[in-house]
């Protein structure tokens, strides 16, 4: 990236949800900063704070000198004024209070880890159940992917079968929300995927 003089823009939508560790999930960003890159980081708190309707986040700018930073800030202020000017502050206040209070921050970190561990467990169990059913194909990608969503590898016709015949809802691309899996429905979902793969081409 240095050789090609590319500008880096990170999208940090799931910090903490990928691995269960805020630090581990921030590794790539911190590495690029340590290598001297100027960069933008867009960070959302919609998922890791459960603030879906509040649209809370931030844009972090790493610049090499103060003059550039001042110019960037000036442009950002113009964009903010013309785009949304005065967004609701409730969600931002919740995030700020949580991140700046040691007790609340520790509790939130624990909650994020609990959710991440549950998603990782569901990934592992879904892969195991598909393998136990001898579902054609390889299912390693389910545990190799990270975050709340997974690409199943199902084609549009198989997805249509899942939705219309089994009432398991996912995107036409085969992308499924792993948070929707529970110990009470994972057998049904695995069997539905198996049937989609074996009955629909």
TrEMBL record:
It catalyses: L-aspartate + 2-oxoglutarate = oxaloacetate + L-glutamate. Keywords: Aminotransferase, Pyridoxal phosphate, Transferase. It holds the Pfam family Aminotran_1_2. Residues 2-193 form the Aminotransferase class I/classII large domain. Its EC number is 2.6.1.1. Gene3D superfamilies: Aspartate Aminotransferase, domain 1 (3.90.1150.10), Type I PLP-dependent aspartate aminotransferase-like (Major domain) (3.40.640.10). GO terms for molecular function: L-aspartate:2-oxoglutarate aminotransferase activity; pyridoxal phosphate binding. GO terms for biological process: aspartate biosynthetic process. GO terms for cellular component: cytosol. Its cofactor is pyridoxal 5'-phosphate. The keyword Transferase applies. InterPro entries: Aminotransferase_I/II_large, Asp_trans, NHTrfase_class1_PyrdxlP-BS, PyrdxlP-dep_Trfase, PyrdxlP-dep_Trfase_major, PyrdxlP-dep_Trfase_small. Belongs to the class-I pyridoxal-phosphate-dependent aminotransferase family. Homodimer. In eukaryotes there are cytoplasmic, mitochondrial and chloroplastic isozymes. This is Aspartate aminotransferase. The lineage of its organism: Eukaryota, Metazoa, Chordata, Craniata, Vertebrata. The gene is LOC104941608.
């Amino acid at each position: 990236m240095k050789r090609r003089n590319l500008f880096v823009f990170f999208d940090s939508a799931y910090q903490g949800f990928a691995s269960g560790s805020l630090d581990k999930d921030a590794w790539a960003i911190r590495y690029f900063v340590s290598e001297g890159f100027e960069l933008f980081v867009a960070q959302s708190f919609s998922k890791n704070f459960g603030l879906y309707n509040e649209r809370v986040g931030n844009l972090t700018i790493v610049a090499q000198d103060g003059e550039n930073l001042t110019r960037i800030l000036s442009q950002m202020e113009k964009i903010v004024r013309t785009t949304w000017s005065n967004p609701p502050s409730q969600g931002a206040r919740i995030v700020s209070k949580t991140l700046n209070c040691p007790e609340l921050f520790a509790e939130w970190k624990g909650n994020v880890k609990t959710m991440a561990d549950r998603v990782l467990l569901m990934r592992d169990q879904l892969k195991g159940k598909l393998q136990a059913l001898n579902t054609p194909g390889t299912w390693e990608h389910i545990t190799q992917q990270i975050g709340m969503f997974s690409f199943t590898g199902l084609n549009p016709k198989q997805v249509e079968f899942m939705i219309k015949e089994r009432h398991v809802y996912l995107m036409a691309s085969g992308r499924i929300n792993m948070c929707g899996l529970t110990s009470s429905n994972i057998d049904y979902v695995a069997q539905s995927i198996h049937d989609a793969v074996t009955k629909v081409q």
